[in-house]
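Board notes, transcribed. Complex of a protein with calcium ion.
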Amino acid sequence: MLKTRFIGIGALALAASLTVACSSEEDDIDDLDDIGDVIDDRIDDLDLDDDSVVSQNEWGSGFIVWDENGDQILVTGEFQFNGVAFDAADVNNDGYVTEDEWDDLMDDWDVDADDVLEEFELEPYL
Ligand SMILES: [Ca+2]
Ligand SMILES: [Ca+2]
Ligand SMILES: [Ca+2]
Ligand SMILES: [Ca+2]
């Protein structure tokens, strides 16, 4: 008779706690909007009905949107087009753009006089 003794060995599982630094890289940056015919964010903000052009009404609303502190003038920090545009807009050179100056700007920039600003008309000022 062979007596086999099974010795139950309590196996000790040593859980080594490894601190794994899991850096989750998010690849959701789609910065591909520099392609020619994609509308600039600034135009997009003005173009409320997304028809790719800025109408006079939209242009008028743009002044209000950009005038963050609501003092009826746009200073350089609020004015989101470039320096050339600001100089063009600030006709009397007092350092800020009033609503009248803003409205006149649209007439100046609407080179094809169709009462809307297309991207090509705004492009030099972005
Ligand atoms: Ca529009
Ligand atoms: Ca302001
Ligand atoms: Ca001015
Ligand atoms: Ca136009």
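Confidence is low (pLDDT under 50) at residues 6-24. Strands lie at 54-55, 73-74, 97-98, 116-117.
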